[in-house]
């Protein structure tokens, strides 16, 4: 009889442990499928405690799992072509650098251009809000995937930009290094500073700020990623009680070739992906990715 009581007790209590595990934290598994080393950076949003690390290295094929607390908001990105100056001992990267002079970003964000994964956990309606953004430009292919079977609400859609945009980046947006012709692709806002590209000034509303030929370069290649500030309907996703896998250079990764002058074929965005949520990343009325980015300035 005692065994039966113990069984009944455990059958009741174990689900609660699983429930509270999901509520108290999520696991972010960050994986490098690139053929070269990357250095992920992490920035917590205003009013959100930093994670146990704000920057580290990942060799090809390597992963790192982090526990992320409830209601955390922040962004992740990858840094490339990093090195330590032998004279000053300062650490720096050609793309995605955070300017901290160390591997840890310590509260500093990515210097554009950089592909960003943005999260708010346990936001409006208890949902996680997440996206992959090219609003600040592009440097690496990236995918964000809720762990299958663990999400319990929202559309729990995999999102990202799986295409290498650097080879086909328009010349006026291209970032080059001493050894590589194209290592990143700027946004038109960063390249030109024009309010119509930055959705600022007279263009600071969805009615006045429209897609440009430059934002369409990003959107045609990566239809689920943010391409400009008011690109919300196909770019913000929700899930609940999920863990997430963030993958750099996910397979298969294709390239935009500059030789043919054409955009790659874009995968169709499913109807469930086209829902416009009433909140952006859990912060106020859905207006723009730009509004979320101001939390990190």
TrEMBL record:
Pfam families: Thaumatin
Keyword ATP-binding: no
UniProt keyword terms in alphabetical order: Disulfide bond, Signal
PROSITE patterns listed in its UniProt record: THAUMATIN_2 (PS51367)
Entry keyword Signal: yes
Cystine connections: 34-249, 82-93, 98-105, 156-239, 161-222, 169-185, 189-198, 199-209
Signal peptide region: 1-25
Source organism superkingdom: Eukaryota
Residues spanning the membrane: none
Record-linked CDD domains: TLP-PA (cd09218)
Family under the similarity heading: Belongs to the thaumatin family.
Protein name, as recorded: Thaumatin-like protein 1b
Organism: Cannabis sativa (Hemp)
Biological classification of the source: Eukaryota, Viridiplantae, Streptophyta, Embryophyta, Tracheophyta
Gene: LOC115702776
